Amino acid sequence: MIGLFTKIIQTGKRAEALGEAEHATELLGEQLGAAIRKKFQGSLAIREVDAGSCNGCELEIIAANNCYYDLERFGVHFVPSPRFADMLLVTGPVTRNMETALKMTYEATPNPKLVVAAGDCAINCGVFGKDHYAIAGSVADIIPVDAVIHGCPPTPTDIIRGILQAIEA
Amino acid sequence: MIHDANTWFAERLSDHGIVTSYLEDHHPAAMPCLQVRRLDWANVAEEARRHQMRFVSLWAAEAGAHDEKALYAYMAFAHPEHRHVLLRTDLNQNDPALQDIGRHYVAAVRMQRSLQDMFGIRVEGLADTRQWLKHEHWPDDAHPMRRDFPATTRMQESDGEYAFIRAEGDGVYEYPVGPVHAGIIEPGHFRFHAVGEKILNMEERLGYVHKGVEKRFEGLTAAEGVRLAGRISGDSTVAHAWAFCQACENAAYLELPAYAVTLRAILCERERMANHIGDIGAICNDGGFAFMHVQMQRLREEMARMHRDIFGHRLLMDLIVPGGVACRLSSETAAVLAEDSRRMAAEVEQLRSIYADHPSIQERVIGSGTVSVEDATSVGLLGYAGRASGVYADERVEEAYPPYDKLNVRVPRGEFGDVATRVWVRFEEVAESARLICELLQALPEGAERVEFNAPEAGISGFDAIEGWRGEIAAWVRFGRNGVIDRYAVRDPSEINWLGLELAVREVPVPDFPLNNKSFNCSYSGNDL
Question: Which of A84, B51, B132, B227 is the most exposed place for a label (fewest CB within 10 A)?
Fold first, then answer.
C-alpha cells in the first residue's frame, strides 16, 4: 500500500488546462465547463456509439477521459445507456449491420438530444467509401447530426472542441 | 530474400499419396503454395493436424486476370520449425463446394461460414451452417465477394432470425448484451446463459462492423491499399500496414533496406507497448482498481504524445508504406525515443509491483477465465492469449522476418491460462519490447528509408505473417492487371482468439466477464472486416 501512495504523490496532478495539451492557446476546458454549467446544470451525459469504426476513434475518445484531459472535471461523463444521455457521440461509417442498432439507440435517447459525428468516417465514410454494399452511409445519412469532428482519428483536443461546438450551437 | 523452396509439407503429403504441385506464381518460396486436388482437401487438413501444424487461415478468391475460369479456395498452416505452407484447390464455379476441415481445426468453422456468406461456397459436412458475417437482413443470394456482385450494390432488406444456441432447464436464464455496449468500445452481441451468477455458456454474434474491407481492396494500388490496411483495426495500424506491405513486397520480390525494416520494427514494438499498457490498466479498472487504470492511461497518453512529436501521428498511422517507411529518425530523436521506452518500461515495472501487492485485484484475476493448454492448442490461440495457455507461436521467432532475424526475441511462456497469466504475459512483453526498441535504436543502420515499389505482373501472389501486438496477422495478396490488387485476404488474430474468450468464460461469474473480455481484447473491426 505504501508503494501505491508514494506513486500517487510522485505522479502528482497531471490534469492540464485544455489547449495547453496541444500547444493551442485558448482555454477550451474553461469554456466547456461554463457552457455545461449554463445549459446542462453542470452535467453533460454522453453515450458513445461505434457504428462501424476501425476503433481508432474509440482510442482517442478514451484518451479524452485520461488524467491529462480529464473531461469529467468539466461535467462531461460517458454513460452506459442512451436512456439517460444528452448527447450521442457517433463514430465510424454506419455499416449496414449497425444501421438498425444506431437508429434504435437514437430513438432510445430522450429529447432534446444532440448528435455529434466524430471522425472522418462518421462524416463522409473516410477510407471505407460511401458507395459500398456493406456501408449504409455517413452518420448524417441515418440520423440528424448537430456537429462534426474532423480527423482520422480526431485528437482528444479536437473531440473536446467538437463537444463544445455542439452544445454552443 | 529469395529463400530455398520449403518442401517439408509437400513431402509429408506425398508420403500419404496426396499429390501436390508447387505454384510458381506465388512468393516467397519459403512459404510455398501447393495446388491439391479438391478430393484431398480434408485429408490435407487431417495430415496437417497429425503433424501438429497450427491452422492459420482459410480464404477464397476468384481466379485472377491470368486464368479466368476458376474459383479457388486456400488454406494455410504453420509448423514451429517448418514455417508456413499454403494449399490451394480449384472449385466448380457454377456449384462451388468444399470439404469441411472444421472437424480437424475448430477455428476453421467460422471462416467456412464466412466462405458460405461471401462466396456462396457450400461446405460439405459443416457442423454449423448458420450465417456469420452476413446478417439476417441481407438477401439469401447476396455473395459480395463474387465478381458478379458489384461493390456498389444496394442490397434489398430481407427478414430472418439468427438461431442462437438455446439452453433450457431449471434456473437457466438468458442474457443478451449488445451490439451497443456499455463502455467506449466496439459493437458486437454476446448471448449469455447463466445459472445463478455463473455463466453456463456465452455465444458471440459478430459481424456488426463488417465494412466490406476485402472487397474494397479490389482495384486499389498498393500505395492506396496501405491506408485502408492501416484502418482494418485502428489499434493495430502499424502491424496491419506492415503485414499488407510485406505481402505486396514478397509478391514483387522486393528486398527492403535495413533502415526501413528496423524502423518498422521500432514502430511495431512501440504499438505493442502502448496497447499492452492501456489494456493492463483497463483490465484492472474492470476489476475495480482505478489507480492502475489512471496510471496506465497516463503512460499511454505520454506515449501517444511522444509519437505525435516524433512521427506526427499519435497512433502511428500511415507511417509504413510499400517499399519502406515514410519517416526518419535523427540521432536526437532516436535518443529521445530510446530514453522514453526505457522510462516507460521502468514505470510499468514499478506499477507491476504495486499490482502484485494488491490483494483485491489479485483475487479477481487469479484463476478467473482459465483456458487449458489442451483447448488453447486445439483452437490455436495466438499472441498473449496463446502464450498464457502453453501455445507459444510468435512470428518474430518462427518466421524471423527482418529485422527479427538478427534479434533474440524472448517469448514469455505461461501455462495456467487465466486472466492473471494473460496480464503477466503482457507485462513481460512491455519489458521485452522496450529492450528490443533500445537494441534496434542503438544499431540504427545507414541507408534509405524507402525504395520504389513496382507492382508485380498480373496473377502473382505474395504471403506473409507478421506478429502484431495481438498475435499473428496472416496476409495474402494477389495482383491483377495494371498493377492493382485484385484480392487481399487478411486474417486478424482476433478471428481465432474470439473463440478463446468463449472457452474462458464458462463457469465464470457474470460480473467477471468484462475482466475476461478485456484480458483478450479481441478486435471487432479486425474480425468483421
Answer: A84
Place of cell 525504395: B451
From B67, B97, B124, give the residue that closes a domain.
Answer: B124
User: CA distances (Å), B175 to each of A55, B164, B206, in order?
Assistant: 25, 12, 16
Of B385, B388, B473, B208, whose CA–CA distance to A94 is shortest?
A: B208
442462437: which residue's cell? B164
Q: Which residues pair with B174 in a beta bridge?
A: B193
Contacts of A8 in chain B (CB under 8 A): 291
Q: Measure CB to CB from residue A61 to each of B184, B298, B314 and give the nearest one.
A: B184
Q: Which of A156, A166, A164 is nearest to A57 (CA)?
A: A156
Q: Does the domain made of A15-168 have the CATH classification 3.30.450.20?
A: no
CATH code for the domain of B498: 1.10.645.10
Domain hosting B412: range is 213-528
The residues that bridge with B324 in the sheet, in sequence order, are B321, B450
Please state which of the ranges A124-133, B148-157, B271-280, B422-431 shows the lowest mean pLDDT.
Answer: B148-157
B255 alpha-carbon distance from chain centroid: 24
Minimum distance, in Å, between the CA of residue B280 and any CA atom of chain A: 14
pLDDT at B59 over 90: yes
Contact assessment for residue A42 and residue B392, using Cβ atoms and an 8 Å cutoff = no
A4/B233 CB distance under 8 A: no
Radius of gyration of chain B (CA): 23
Contact A98 B208 (CB under 8 A): yes
Per-residue pLDDT, averaged over B66-82, amounts to: 85
Does pLDDT of A124 surpass 90?
yes
**Residues B105, B225: one domain?**
no
Residues 108-127 of A with CB under 8 A from B: 126-127
Residue range B194-223: mean pLDDT, rounded = 93
Q: Give the total number of structural domains in chain B.
A: 2
* Domain-located, residue B427: yes
**Residues A48, A79 contacting (CB under 8 angstroms):** no
Looking at the complex, report in whole angstroms how far the Cα of residue B231 sits from the nearest Cα belonging to chain A. Answer: 6
**CB contacts, 8 Å: B514 with chain A:** none
**B268 located within any domain:** yes
Calpha distance B193→B15 (Å, rounded): 47
B155 in a structural domain: no
Query: What ipTM was estimated for this complex?
Result: 0.92
Which residues of B fall within a CB distance of 8 Å from A134? 144, 210-212, 215
pLDDT at site B240: 96
Kindly state whether residues B110 and B225 are assigned to the same domain: no
In a domain, B194, yes or no: no
> Residue A128: is its pLDDT beyond 60?
yes
CA distances from B22 to A143, B13, B253, B406 (A): 53, 13, 18, 30
% pLDDT > 90, chain B: 75
Last residue of a domain, one of B60, B92, B124: B124
Cis peptide before B403 (omega within 30 of 0): yes
- What pLDDT, on a 0 to 100 scale, did the predictor assign at position A35? 82
CATH label of the domain that carries residue B27:
3.30.460.80
Report residue B312: phi and psi, to 5°. Answer: 90, 0
Q: Where are the domains positioned within chain A?
A: 15-168
Q: Taking a C-beta distance cutoff of 8 angstroms, is the pair A69, A156 a contact?
A: yes
| Judgement on whether residues B112 and B255 belong to the same structural domain of the protein | no
Q: What is the pLDDT of residue B282?
A: 95
Nearest to A78 by CA among B181, B414, B208, B323: B181
Cβ contact B212–A56 (<8 Å): no
> Which residues in chain A have their CB less than 8 angstroms from residue B186's CB?
50, 53, 55, 58
